[in-house]
Design a protein that fits this description.
With about 240 residues, the chain is an alpha/beta fold. The protein has helices spanning about 20-25, 25-50, 70-80, 95-105, 125-135, 175-185, 200-210, 215-230, and strands at about 5-10, 55-60, 85-90, 115-120, 140, 150-155, 190. It has a 7-stranded mixed beta sheet with strand order 3-2-1-4-6-5-7, with helices on both faces. Helix 1 (about 20-25) packs across helix 2. The longest helix has 25 residues, at about 25-50.
Length: about 240
């Protein structure tokens, strides 16, 4: 089975990312944190490619009119400081459902299964990605805010209607997506929920987990976040 893994992301551009965080700490802090999130996704992609030599990965960027795909991919690569062997694409126009439908229609010209996940999910793991790519059911990873962070569908299951009549970025998103899958009588596998990190409260709730985790990537993110936050608020911080 040929599987493609697609990361949905925005280019790390000042004033364009993590707008809810920016309301509390400003655009520069929001950009810094988003760059950390992209760094984690890049590490995740590298780990997946090391273990799954035949895995195909793409990064689809949501681009404003004033940033080209070339500029956006350069900003992404600079932020993660890695030479990723992935293809960059521009997301199509429309709401999230229309964009994902377009991505999958294109993917199924070459691949048997498509896994799409979002860059805001810093607690995503390569094991979840790999399992979602190998299972036969439609797969969803719920978010704790009512949305979801990953969807995986096989070519034989795909129907553009799977993304219709959904209120995106709402507390009803996951329920409505699940309803569509069930209405189409498709088998569904639901992973345990993973939080999106969109607000200060989201970060605070998960900071201790990242600090105490044995994964050095999580420790780096927690350390960098704490240091930057302390610097922003002019607090005394001793890096461990």
């Amino acid at each position: 089975m040929k599987v493609v893994y697609v990361l949905y992301a925005k280019p790390p551009f000042l004033g364009y990312v993590k707008t809810r965080l920016a309301r509390h700490f400003g655009d520069e802090f929001a950009l810094f944190f988003y760059q950390l999130m992209l760094w984690w996704q890049a590490a995740l992609i590298e780990d997946l490619l090391k273990e799954q030599k035949k895995a195909k990965l793409e990064i689809h960027l949501a681009l404003p009119e004033y940033i080209s795909l070339r500029q956006g991919s350069k900003l992404f690569k600079k932020a993660v400081n890695r030479k990723l062997k992935v293809k960059f694409h521009k997301q199509s126009k429309g709401d999230l459902g229309e964009r994902m439908a377009h991505t999958m229609e294109h993917a199924f010209q070459k691949y048997d299964r498509c896994v799409i996940w979002g860059s805001d999910v810093i607690l995503m793991t390569k094991d979840i990605l790999f399992e979602a790519g190998q299972r036969e059911e439609v797969c969803l990873v719920p978010a704790t805010d009512g949305g979801y962070s990953l969807i995986a569908i096989s070519k034989k299951q795909f129907n553009p209607q799977i993304f219709s009549n959904i209120a995106w970025s709402s507390k009803q998103t996951y329920k409505q997506q699940k309803r569509n899958i069930q209405n189409l009588k498709l088998p569904l596998y639901e992973f345990s929920p993973i939080p999106d990190l969109d607000t200060v409260e989201d970060i605070a709730e998960n900071l201790n987990y990242m600090e105490s985790h044995d994964c050095p990537h999580y420790q780096k993110i927690a350390r960098e976040f704490t240091y930057y936050l302390a610097s922003t608020l002019n607090l005394d911080y001793q890096s461990g």
